[in-house]
Write a structure and sequence with these properties.
This protein is an all-alpha fold and about 280 residues long. The protein folds into 3 domains: about 35 residues; about 100 residues, Cytochrome c-like domain (Cytochrome Bc1 Complex, Chain D, domain 2), CATH 1.10.760.10; about 130 residues, Cytochrome Bc1 Complex, Chain D, domain 2. The protein has a two-stranded antiparallel sheet with strand order 1-2. A two-stranded antiparallel sheet has the order 3-4. Helix 2 crosses helix 6, helix 4 packs across helix 6 and helix 9 crosses helix 11. The N and C termini lie far apart (about 75 Å). This is Cytochrome C. InterPro entries: Cyt_c-like_dom (IPR009056), Cyt_c-like_dom_sf (IPR036909), Cytochrome_c550/c551-like (IPR051811).
Length: about 280
């Protein structure tokens, strides 16, 4: 290749790359309104964004993987927690952490109720943005990450009855535990004593038996399996003691599983939880 050919090749390559980049940019902007649900950007969402900036939330947290990486990425937080939990958390984070144990205690910002509601509304809008599965690792308790696309093969958890067959309802229930939306693993640990946004489920069968026999139970279940089923589809039927689990008579656990899971999936999930002695 002589100098003239090299020059033409460089000019042509640069022009092609520039046209390709311009085309991709135009196409991206064409898709942005749909990908970001621009029609759902209400005044409350805008004010919530302003609250996010006003209190410098990005100094610790991240959205879409961008931020300080000191505290969890909040891109999908409303799908993992729910509005009731987030409202109570923002009012007084100290109720949700043991500072001596967790150390990274979120400061109390003294947000107004309007600021809290609109900030949660903003985060709800963020969670619905089609971000092409980024970031790929939703926040969980005990430092783990869920598998968004599919559940891992069933592995016996501490204090559980071994589950070995993929055709076993218990094994299928463990997959539901990992893949339900919101994923159960985002709030519940299977490690004894590792309470998160929800209590650890290690030993849940034993605790349920004790609860049902104590006279303090407030729901309608008569046995362990019925209690586990009730806890999934009607979480406020009986409230677990502790400010970090409920407020105003309402459980922080999402009440959407009766709609998002089939009855068969719920039965499989109950079968798995019933192995956690």
């Amino acid at each position: 290749m002589n100098n003239r050919q090299a020059r033409l090749f460089a000019i042509g390559s640069t022009a092609f790359a520039a046209i390709l980049f311009l085309g991709m940019t135009v196409d991206s902007h064409r898709q942005f309104p749909e990908l970001t649900n621009a029609d759902k950007i209400t005044p409350e969402v805008v004010h919530g964004k302003d609250v996010w900036h006003k209190y410098n939330c990005i100094n610790c947290h991240t959205l879409f993987g961008e931020g300080a990486y000191y505290a969890p990425d909040l891109t999908k937080i409303t799908q993992h927690r729910g509005e009731a939990y987030l409202h109570a958390y923002m009012r007084d984070p100290s109720k949700f952490y043991d500072e001596n144990k967790h150390r990274r205690l979120m400061p109390k910002q003294d947000l107004s109720e309007k600021e809290i509601v609109d900030l949660v509304t903003f985060l709800g809008w963020v969670s619905e943005v089609d971000n092409q599965n980024w970031p790929p690792r939703p926040i969980l308790v005990t430092g783990g990450f869920s598998q968004a696309a599919s559940a891992a093969p069933a592995v016996a958890s501490p204090g559980s009855t071994p589950v070995n067959s993929d055709s076993d309802p218990r094994a299928l229930g463990e997959q539901v535990f990992a893949s339900a939306v919101p994923t159960c693993k985002a709030c519940h640990s299977l490690t004894p004593g590792a309470d998160g946004a929800g209590p650890s489920l290690a030993g849940v069968v034993t605790r349920t038996e004790e609860l049902l026999a104590s006279g303090e139970y407030q729901g309608k279940a008569k046995d362990v399996e019925a209690y586990l089923h009730e806890s999934i589809v009607e979480p406020s039927a009986h409230l677990v003691t502790g400010d970090m689990y409920s407020a105003g008579g309402t459980s922080f656990m999402p009440n959407s599983y009766a709609e998002s899971l089939s009855e068969e999936q719920i039965d499989q999930l109950v079968a798995f939880l019933a192995t956690l002695k």
